[in-house]
Amino acid sequence: MPDNSSNIVIDIGNSSLKVGQFVDSELVADWNCHSTNDVVELVSKLQVKAGIVCSVGMDTQEIVYKLKPLEINILTPSTPIPFNNHYNTKNTLGLDRIAALAGVEKINSGKNNLVIDIGSCITYDFLDKDKNYHGGSISPGVNLRFRAMHDYTQRLPLITNYQEAKLIGNTTREAMMSGVMIGITAELDGIISHYQIKWPDLEVIMCGGGLNSFESKLKAHIFASPKLVLIGLNRILEYNEKT
Question: Do 36 and 63 form a contact (C-beta atoms < 8 A)?
Fold first, then answer.
């Protein structure tokens, strides 16, 4: 493998830190890391020509500094992207959402795409067949829903480990799991259905840490792409190298 032609992409999420290595636009390896020091140690062992980092919260300057002399691009709201962004408040659009949209532009261009990312929040984003991004919606993710019920009531427990939910829960724990897990499934099906009414040829691309909990439960056919944000970051990196 020609390491000297590889790109490194770094995705710093709310609860995860992921690194991907690309050779000739193909993802050849990816890792989950626990800290920026883990990332630096990993990247220092590779021969890299270019890199990009995306963060939804953590300051990226530390990791960029630690990776010197490798020049790491930082994804920002002003970074040129390979689609038309019609979001009214571009500076508030999540960088992970931008990366996921760039990933869909890479793997499913020319289609009407609904991108669903199931992470700390669940985001829905619509990219049309002409590469126009129109916006979408945001709702709380699994852990946020469990946390909210615990934090804003007196007696409901905090659920951190959950399994298959029953429609009718006959304990408080089971009832909470039903409300969250089956509730999210119904939300996903409902929102997808609304989009399909407007765009019957809609393709649904799903990613995020909660992907495995819901992909097999939906009525609609979906395409699972767990590495979508990494693919999108590399697409943005290559797009900027050519412009």
Answer: yes
Contact status, residue 51 vs residue 71, Cβ threshold 8 Å: yes
Beta strands in 93-242 (DSSP E): 113-118, 121-127, 132-140, 203-207, 223-224
Q: pLDDT for 165-202, tens place per residue?
A: 999 999 999 999 999 999 999 999 999 999 999 999 99
The string of DSSP codes covering 169-208 is: -SSHHHHHHIIIIIHHHHHHHHHHHHHHHH-TT-EEEEES
DSSP 8-state class, residue 67: T
What's the burial of 187, exposed, middle or buried (CB within 10 Å: 0-12/13-18/19+)?
Answer: middle
Would you say the C-alpha torsion 81, 86, 90, 92 has a positive or negative sign?
A: negative
DSSP structure class, residue 14: S
DSSP state letter for 24 = T
Backbone angles phi, psi at 129, to 5 degrees: -65, -15
Q: Which residue has the tokens 């919606």?
A: 137
Six-digit token string for 63? 């990791």
Which H helix or E strand runs over 74?
Answer: strand 72-74
Q: 161 or 186, which is more confident?
A: 186
In the block, which residue shows the tokens 């939910």? 165
pTM, rounded to two decimals: 0.92
Residues known to be catalytic: 96
56 pLDDT more than 50: yes
